[in-house]
Amino acid sequence: MTVQTIDKATPELLEAVNRLLPQLSSSASAMTPEGLERFISQPNVHLFVYTPDDDPNNILGMLTLVIFHIPTGTRAWIEDVVVSEETRGQGAGRKLTEAALEYANSLGTCTVDLTSRPSREAANRLYQRVGFDKRNTNVYRYSC
């Protein structure tokens, strides 16, 4: 299995993203070709995908890494980690996360943050195993 970054929107990528999105969020809307292009073309947003070695168009998992610069340093945030149900438990989440952390480190990030619902027990165990520390913080969201 391979992890790679994607920098071009294609019909195959759109199909894969829209296949994985419902497994990530029941409220997520399907992406349009224009929305995918807008997402992929952002310079500080990096999409990592997990594929079989013998079928690089068969995306079985994805992770978004956002890099940003603030007065206290370069930071990164991991979002929208999802692995297809049939692939879970085979190391895809770990490989995606480790690839994103390596890339963020290569850009000089001070920290990489993410959030995960407590009900996602396997994901929370994974993040702790790869070195994330659970923070004593509150996460707030303002919705428009």
What are the defining features of this structure?
five-stranded mixed β-sheet; 5 strands; 144 residues; 32% helix; 4 helices; globular; alpha+beta; single chain
Give structural notes.
The protein is an alpha+beta fold and 144 residues long. Helix content is 32%, strand content 25%. The protein is built from 4 helices and 5 strands, in the order E-H-H-E-E-E-H-E-H. The protein has helices spanning 11-24, 33-40, 92-106, 121-129, and strands at residues 2-6, 45-51, 61-70, 73-83, 111-113. Strands 1-2-3-4-5 form a 5-stranded mixed sheet. Strand 4 (73-83), helix 3 and strand 5 (111-113) form a beta-alpha-beta unit. It is globular. The relative contact order is 0.15.
Provide a compact summary of the structure.
32% of the residues lie in helices and 25% in strands. The protein is built from 4 helices and 5 strands; from the N terminus they run βααβββαβα.
